[in-house]
Automatic annotation (TrEMBL), chain A:
Protein name stated in the entry: Uncharacterized protein YegL
Organism of this sequence: Taibaiella chishuiensis
InterPro entries linked: Tellurite-R_TerY, VWF_A, vWFA_dom_sf
Pfam families, per database record: VWA (PF00092)
UniProt-listed SUPFAM superfamilies: vWA-like (SSF53300)
Residue ranges annotated for the VWFA domain, each copy included: 8-146
UniProtKB/TrEMBL annotation, chain B:
The protein, known as: Protein phosphatase 2C-like protein
Signal peptide boundaries: none
TM annotation in the entry: none
Residue span, PPM-type phosphatase domain: 164-466
Native organism taxonomy: Bacteria, Pseudomonadati, Bacteroidota, Chitinophagia, Chitinophagales
Species: Taibaiella chishuiensis
Domain of life of the source: Bacteria
UniProt-listed Pfam families: PP2C_2
Length: 196, 467
């Protein structure tokens, strides 16, 4: 992702953070972490309480591999280590939500496929794969999660709509539910196609 | 650089190097003062360009450098130190930091600190005016924008939107009641959590109680509808009402006569045989009530063309009866709502049920899950015979989460004592519930007490106290 799309992504993401900041429940309980994956996999922002969260600009190289598998590997490590499970003496965190955003397809397919069952074993409250633009591969994301949305264009308006939906989804994430159920997703905006 | 050397290098670069046989000629050339001066002049101007360029670069780098200062929150004391050392700004003279006044903050150039109490929330850009060492005294100061995020005061964000009272499953957003219960007294309050009020959602919690005078049994039930299930408010209502009605019918119909005999004998004969018999009765009576709650909800869901999971609700209930030698307390529970029995002298507490708590927040089990009845139910019952007690309390997680946090604390009498003291007015709001049967305002007091503020805990709250 490069040029206008990445700029649009930054704007939309920052808009989403602002929206969440004005949500009473989110401001009280939401923690966010951002991992970027291209040639390199990087924890851009470690898990941070929304109150203290500051969004840095996301940059991507113009070309090179998309190491989605490596990205998943890091997510797996981080979630395993950082999300607190409920015990007799420790309050459990709400189930984490996972949003994966890509405009390409995994270059490290073998690792990507190896990581899928591990990621699934983390029991995210919701897992949303978002494929942006014509080059993004929906079918690869489908292997990871049943919820894949496709954005035809990655312009500011589409992304803003998408992230509005993401924040609506996040706001669904803190309700009591059966121990094995997942979060009910709100209907996606018209700019977003749910890939069936 | 030596001007003479510069001239020699210049000729070299311009492809006219001084050849060995021209050495004497070059020496003579360089003895001309005006040439040397010209070279010196060039060198000086070069230096000037170099200095200006690196200064410009430096200023540009500083302007582009991402520096972060901590976020603030409206109404909360803010203090941040500009980390000039960490940012590598040793060569900077900071002059002013503009844009703070409008937020309600101030900058102290001496200490390079921002202080104050923010009054406004938003994404602000502060304007830092600075100079870099080497800049002229009269140079226009440089400007750098530094982002500062001020969060809104979380309390200010909560809205109270009434729920839709034309909804077929509507219930009052809050309710509080007190009444005699046999020879004891009961006070109960249930109110919509801020997270529900914020979106105009319904109260999902419910409770019900009754005293059956002929048999002497009292029944009290509390249920918490799952936030994720669309008709859970109705599920919790059916669950509570069914249990009270079912057990009332059984009690008044004489079904507990044998249990009464066993309980009468309990204090004088506590052999395992008697225990077993009592357990069996509890299993049948309370298990039957729980199953009836499931059936009623299932039938109702079917009638509505909905799934039973749309009615997901937890359920705890207790039966209490006074005998000559004391009180029998029988309980059942599914979900994450505790029942606590506090001893007469407040020196002991008995947690009547084990909570269903998942590894993630909000994860629990519901009376509406058929597997509850397929699994072993026996761990879900509680029984205690006590001479007297201070209070029997049933609460939903809206109270338990903020006041006890974790299950282990429910076993600690100190926590329950703290909870009682909290009710007695030991809290930030100085809200007090005078647990006195003659107190006419007791229900209102409990309702007011229940408005306590606890960050992150904005679920429906229900608390029932038998005292």
């Amino acid at each position: 992702m490069f040029g206008e799309p990445i700029q649009a992504l930054n704007n939309a993401l920052s808009g989403m953070i602002n929206t969440l900041r004005s949500d009473a429940q989110a401001l009280d309980s939401l923690w966010i972490s951002i991992v970027t994956f291209d040639r390199e996999v990087k924890e851009l922002v470690p898990l941070t309480e929304l109150v203290n969260f500051q969004l840095p600009e996301i940059t991507c190289p113009q070309s090179g591999p998309t190491n989605t598998g490596k990205g998943l590997e890091l997510i797996y490590q981080k979630v395993t280590a950082e999300v607190r499970k409920g015990t007799d003496t420790q309050k459990g965190d709400w189930r984490p939500l996972f949003f994966l955003f890509t405009d390409g397809k995994p270059s490290d397919i073998q690792l990507y496929r190896e990581m899928i069952p591990k990621i699934k074993s983390l029991h995210f409250g919701a897992m949303v794969g978002c494929a942006a633009g014509q080059l993004a591969d929906d079918s690869m994301l489908k292997e990871l999660t049943g919820t894949v949305v496709h954005l035809d264009t990655a312009d500011t308006n589409t992304l803003r709509q998408f992230f509005k939906w993401v924040s609506d989804t996040i706001e669904q994430g803190n309700k009591s539910m059966g121990t094995v159920e997942s979060v009910a997703l709100p209907p996606p905006p018209t700019e977003v196609h749910l890939v069936i | 650089m030596d001007p003479k050397l510069y001239i020699e290098k210049l000729f070299e670069v311009k492809q006219m190097p001084v050849a060995p046989h021209q050495a004497a000629l070059f020496e003579e050339f360089c003895s001309n003062a005006s040439y040397l001066e010209a070279a010196t002049d060039i060198l000086r101007k070069q230096q000037l360009l170099m200095d200006a360029w690196s200064l410009n670069n430096r200023i540009n780098d500083i302007k582009r450098q991402q520096v972060m200062i901590p976020n603030g929150t409206v109404g909360k004391v803010y203090g941040a130190q500009l980390d000039t050392t960490g940012w590598g700004w040793q060569d900077l003279v900071l002059l002013e930091l503009e844009g703070l006044e409008a937020i309600g903050l101030a900058y102290d150039p001496e200490t390079q600190q921002i202080r104050g109490i923010p009054e406004q929330n938003g994404d602000f850009k502060l304007k830092l005016k600075f100079k870099v060492t080497g800049e002229a005294e009269d140079a226009v100061p440089n400007e750098k924008l530094i982002p500062l995020i001020i969060n809104p005061d979380p309390k200010s964000l909560w809205k109270t939107t009434p729920s839709d009272n034309t909804d077929p499953f509507w219930k009052a957003d809050e309710t509080a009641v007190s009444a005699p219960l046999g020879d004891r007294h009961i006070v109960a309050a249930s109110k919509r959590g801020r997270s529900h009020a914020n979106t105009g959602a319904f109260r999902d919690d419910d409770f019900a109680f009754a005293h059956f005078a002929t048999s002497g049994w009292s029944v009290v039930a509390v249920s918490d509808g799952a936030g994720s299930a669309k008709f859970s408010r109705q599920g919790s209502r059916i669950a509570c009402d069914t249990v009270v009605q079912y057990l009332g019918n059984k009690a008044e119909g004489g079904d507990f006569a044998e249990l009464d005999t066993l309980l009468e004998a309990y204090n004088t004969n506590t052999g395992t045989d008697l225990q077993k018999k009592i357990s069996l009765h509890i299993y049948q009576a309370l298990g039957g009530a729980a199953q009836q709650a499931y059936k009623e909800i299932e039938a109702f869901a079917k009638e509505q063309g909905a799934g039973i999971r749309d009615f997901h609700a937890t359920l705890i209930f207790a039966l209490v009866k006074k005998y000559k030698s004391g009180y029998a307390v029988l309980t059942f529970g599914v979900g994450d709502c505790p029942i606590g029995l506090i001893s007469k002298d407040r020196s002991a507490v008995h947690l009547m049920n084990k909570l269903d708590v998942g590894e993630f927040g909000g994860g629990t089990r519901f009376i509406t899950m058929p597997e509850i009845f397929r699994d072993d139910l026996s761990g879900r019952f509680g029984f205690k015979f006590v001479e007297d007690f201070t209070a029997l309390m049933l609460m939903t997680d809206g109270i338990y989460d903020p006041k006890f946090e974790v299950e282990a604390n429910l076993e600690q009498v100190s926590k329950w004592d703290g909870f009682l003291r909290d009710l007695e007015g030991d809290n930030a709001d100085l809200a007090r519930v005078n647990l006195d049967a003659d107190n006419p305002d007791i229900a209102t007091e409990l309702s007011v007490w229940m408005d306590f503020w606890s960050p992150g805990n904005h679920d429906d709250r229900t608390l029932v106290i038998i005292f």
